Amino acid sequence: MQSRNLKSIIRATLIVLAVALTACTTITTIEYRDVQGDFVEAVSADNSWSVSPLGASAADGLYSGIVTQLTDEYIAKLDDRLKLNAWLLRAVSEWRLGELSKARVSAQNGLKASQDNQVESRDYVMLAMLDGLIIDSELNIEYRKLISASPDQTITLNDYNENSFALNFETALTELDNGYRQAGPATPPEVGWFFHYHRWRIINNWVIVVTSIEPGEDRISATAEAESKLAMDFLEAMEAELEPIPQGHPLRDLIRAQEAE
């Protein structure tokens, strides 16, 4: 359920800032650019996890280093214009490490630390959307537990209902929507494409869970309930998220690749 091409997805979260800073923050800013470089390297290693276990291990190590360096105290010493980006890198790193509660707190801290002129920025909107992605990751964890305990890789309708999959997938989409509502005229268009990709991915994950229910009436009823919440069938909902993403964009290519799996 996790994306295999994280580099394409998270690349949009990075902003390399070239601003005039006072002498007292120059050293910290130079160090912080090294952290940004580590993040790019971590995303690149993360991208290779599906073909190389060593790649995944390297990504985890880099993400851990970023989280270790971007302490509350370190971020507090950064120029105010860098703090939002620092919280984003820390929150995303924690999310990718599976430290979901910490990622949620970091995202909230980042939103609180933002300046008025950053409200529609790429970093701000990305942080605002992160809770939806965290909920989706939590659902992934629960789903994997169920599947790993099932000899035939299926779940029951009781499993589906006890874990509130329908409600929680709907909540993940709602939180993602609420985050994207922070976007405005100053928000770069790629943030919108990121939003639609992740809406597509969450719906796709919902499909994966529903179609894991043992074939029969239980699966049919769960599908009908989910499509009722989406106000359209799964296929229509996913195509609606694909449509706004430009032809030839890596996220559109990524969707097509995942459809083929």
Topology:
Blueprint: H1 6-10, H2 26-47, H3 53-69, H4 72-77, H5 80-97, H6 100-113, H7 122-148, H8 157-162, H9 165-180, H10 189-210, H11 217-230, H12 234-242, H13 250-259
Helix pairs in contact: 2-3, 2-5, 3-5, 5-6, 5-7, 6-7, 7-9, 7-10, 9-10, 10-12
Tell me briefly what this model is.
With 261 residues, the chain is mainly α. Helix content is 71%, strand content 0%.
Description:
This protein is an all-alpha fold and 261 residues long. The protein has two domains: 1-117, no CATH class; 119-261. Helix content is 71%, strand content 0%. The chain has 13 helices and no strands. It has helices at 6-10, 26-47, 53-69, 72-77, 80-97, 100-113, 122-148, 157-162, 165-180, 189-210, 217-230, 234-242, 250-259. Helix 7 runs antiparallel to helix 9 and helix 10 (189-210) runs antiparallel to helix 12. It is globular, with a radius of gyration of 19 Å. Residues 2-27 and 49-55 have low confidence and may be disordered.
Individual helix count: 13
Query: What is the β-strand count?
Result: 0
Mean pLDDT score, rounded? Answer: 84
What string gives the helices and strands in order? HHHHHHHHHHHHH
Helix content: over 70%
Keywords:
single chain, 261 residues, mainly alpha, 13 helices, 71% helix, 0% strand
